[in-house]
Amino acid sequence: MPSECNYVLLHTGQKMPLLGLGTWKSAPGQVKEAVKYALGAGYRHIDCATAYSNEAEIGEAFQEAVGPDKPVKREELFVTSKLWNTKHHPEDVEPSLRKSLEDLKLDYLDLYLVHWPHAFERGDNLFPKNPDGRMRFDYTDYKETWKAMEKLVEKGLVKAVGLSNFNSRQIDGVLGMAAVKPAVLQVECHPYLAQTELIAHCHKRGLVVTPYSPLGSPDRMWKHPDEPVLLEEPGIKQLAEKYGKSPAQIILRWQVQRKVVTVPKSVTPARLQQNLQVFDFSLTEEEMSSIRSLNKNWRYIVPMITVDGKLVARDAGHPLYPFNEPY
After folding, report:
1. Which residue among 91, 164, 212, 226 has its CA within the 20 to 30 Å range from the CA of 80?
2. Which residues, in sequence order, are bridge partners of residue 46?
3. Closest alpha carbon to 215 in 115, 282, 322, 301
4. How many CB atoms lie within 10 A of CB 13?
5. pLDDT of the residue at 200
6. pLDDT of 273-305, one tens digit each?
7. How confident is the model at residue 227 (pLDDT cuts 50, 70, 90)?
8. Which residues are catalytic?
9. Residues 6+ apart with CB under 8 A from 244
10. Strands, E assignment, the chain
11. Do 235 and 40 form a contact (C-beta atoms < 8 A)?
């Protein structure tokens, strides 16, 4: 079970556990039991999002396990959710949050993130598309969205707000106008996409970084047969043998040792336990550096769609698409 020191402090004063449970791609029928098991095993940080379409089931787990007379007290738990791309219009922000709170059966969130900097067409269809398969975009400026996010903090509905998938210029754009500063940036990050520059950029500005897909997301839909497999990396496997750990544990240790929060997803009890067991050993500076040197700026999570029989980046046509900057 993680000890008391295994957290980072947000600029709000909140303690954010360095290791959490990710719930992206956790299927209905599995995610409730996974969350309940995780809470019983010692997890106190659960990462959610509207777009994962499983918050109602996670809410059932919270209802059964979290409360004044339950095994986990609400104040011990750190819960994150995310505003989806179809809800960027300022009028949609609070209703979207309230829907997440209703589904999760919570009175407040510890952290609420803008999931992506670019918007899709307003409405309840998560993935609005044209007949040719291309996304139907909306062009609400994320700074307008941010002003509505700030009101959630003022109303006590969320304790902190933050960003996800924003690049360095977009982060600075928010910081330049924000009355309530973003506390966290969540981005894809793992040894093949070390994000060293972006993490330094955030830490300098007082943002904590949360890597998602820290193990390379081997179960996602648009996996390419020729892509490098992070968990098969020889250097990682050698370290796993040296420390008597799994390759996944070595990668998670590398992340938490750099003081970045990480949210691996699993629904398997053995893996849920294993992912927590990264606080009983340390990597040397040389080993940390050797893992960092595996970086190849390889991005696994670029959502793809089929247009005219070809796979293309789903959101690349939007002017606020974040991956056109170096970091």
Report:
1. 91
2. 21, 79
3. 301
4. 8
5. 96
6. 999 999 999 999 999 999 999 999 999 888 888
7. confident
8. 52
9. none
10. 7-9, 15-17, 21-22, 45-47, 78-83, 111-114, 119-120, 137-138, 161-164, 184-188, 208-212, 304-307, 310-313
11. no
Contacts of 237 (CB under 8 A, 6+ apart): 247
Distance of CA 18 to the CA centre of its chain: 12
Tally Cβ neighbours within 10 Å of residue 249.
21
Does residue 311 surpass a pLDDT of 90? Answer: no
Which residues, 6+ apart, have CB-to-CB distance to 220 below 8 Å? 25, 213, 300, 301
Q: Could you give the C-alpha distances from 245 to 74, 177, 240, in angstroms and in order?
A: 32, 45, 5
Q: How far apart are the first and last CA of the chain?
A: 34
Percent with pLDDT over 70 in the chain: 96
pTM value?
Answer: 0.94
* pLDDT confidence tier of residue 127, bands split at 50, 70 and 90: very high
Please state at what angle helix 168-175 crosses helix 196-204, rounded to 10 degrees.
10
Strand 184-188 relative to strand 208-212, pairing: parallel
Q: Is 89 annotated as contributing to ligand binding?
A: no
**The length of the chain, given as a count of residues:** 327
Alpha carbon of 171 to those of 51, 181, 186, 199, 269: distances in Å?
A: 22, 10, 11, 12, 37
CB-CB neighbours of 225 under 10 Å: 4
From residue 45, how far is each of 21, 90, 108, 208, 263 by CA, in Å?
A: 6, 28, 14, 15, 8
Whole-number pLDDT of residue 2:
42
The mean pLDDT value for 172-180 works out to 98
